[in-house]
Amino acid sequence: MEYVTHRRIDMRRDPSVSERWLHEQLLTYPTLLGLGEVDVKDSERRQVAGGRLDLLLHDPETNTRYEVELQLGPTDESHIIRTIEYWDHERRRFPQYEHVAVIVAEDITARFFNVISLLNWQIPIIAIQVQLLEVGEVRTLVFTRVLDHITLATEDEDEAAEPTDRSYWVAKGSAATVALAEQLANVARQADPDVTLEQLPGPSHRRGLRGAPGRDPPARHRRRAQLPRPSRRRLTVAVKPRKGGS
Fold first, then answer.
1. 8 A C-beta contact, residue 65 and residue 58
2. Which helix (H) or strand (E) holds 121?
3. H helices within 56-165, ranges in order?
4. How confident is the model at residue 156 (pLDDT cuts 50, 70, 90)?
5. Burial level of 138, CB count in 10 A (0-12/13-18/19+)?
6. What angle do CA 97, 46, 76 make, to 5 degrees?
7. What CATH number is given for 6-147 in this structure?
C-alpha cells in the first residue's frame, strides 16, 4: 500500500481560495457538512435586521432547518453572534420547523469552543471545522464536527427501556385485565383492521389502541375505557390522538 502525505492549506492566505469559493462548493455538495441528506433551501438569504445568511439547509426527513454561517480562519465573537442572530430570526419566522445553528470555520479555538459549549445547553448549535488538504496534486475539503447540539433525554425515553410485552402486563396486572384489553382491541378492529394494542408514551404505564395513520379516534374518547385493576398502577385502554403535523 502506498502512503501519500498531505499538507494543510491556510485558506485565508491562499490566493486561489476565498469564502465565496467555499460557499459555492457547499451549494453544489451540501452533504459535505455531514448533516444528512439536506437540500439547499436558500443562499445569501437576506435578513430583515440586516445581513445575509450564508446557507439555509433543509432536511425533509426530520423537518429540520440548518442556519449555516461560514468563515475562513478562526471563529470569533462576531461569527458566533451573527450565527445565533440569524438562527433566532429564522426560527421566529418559521416555527413549524426545528432549527439548528451551524458554525463553520477553519479553526475553533479552545476559548470559543467553551463558549459555544455553554450556549449549546440553551441553543441548538453545531460547530464544524473545515480543512483544505493538499494530497499530491489534488486538494480536498474535510469537514469535522467538533461540537454537536445537545438533545436532552425525556422521562419517556428512560421508560422505554423497560420491556412491555404481554407477559409484562400480566405480571403487573392480571391475565383477566390483559384478556379484556385484547377483547376490546378485537372489537375496535371491526371498525379499523389496522388497530394495534401498544404502550402509550409517558410515565403512567398505559396501553392504548392505535389505528392507521390519520384514523385515530378523537381525544374526547381517550378516558372512557380506563380499566381499574388490583394494583397501584393501571392498565388503561386509551385512544391516543395522533399529533397533527404542519
1. yes
2. none
3. 77-93, 110-119, 155-159
4. low
5. exposed
6. 85
7. 3.40.1350.10
User: CA angle at residue 140 from 125 to 134, to 5 degrees?
Assistant: 120
What is the pTM assigned to this prediction? 0.60
Pinpoint the alpha helices (H) of the chain: 19-28, 77-93, 110-119, 155-159, 166-172, 175-189
Q: Are 90 and 52 in contact (CB under 8 A)?
A: no
- Between CA 8 and CA 139 the distance in angstroms is 9
Length of the chain: 246
The residue among 50 and 82 whose pLDDT is bigger is 82
How far from chain centre, in Å, is Cα 80? 21
What are the domain boundaries of the chain?
6-147, 155-239
Query: What secondary structure does DSSP assign to 73-103, as a single string?
Result: EE--HHHHHHHHHHHHHHHHH-TTSEEEEEE
- Arithmetic mean of pLDDT, 15-36: 93
Q: Are 146 and 179 in contact, with CB atoms under 8 Å apart? A: no
Cell numbers 384514523 label which residue? 215
Distance between CA atoms of 207 and 175, rounded to whole angstroms? 15
Number of H helices, E strands in the chain: 6, 11
How far is the CA of 154 from the CAs of 51, 96, 241, in angstroms?
Answer: 37, 21, 20
Q: Which three cell numbers stand for residue 183?
A: 377483547
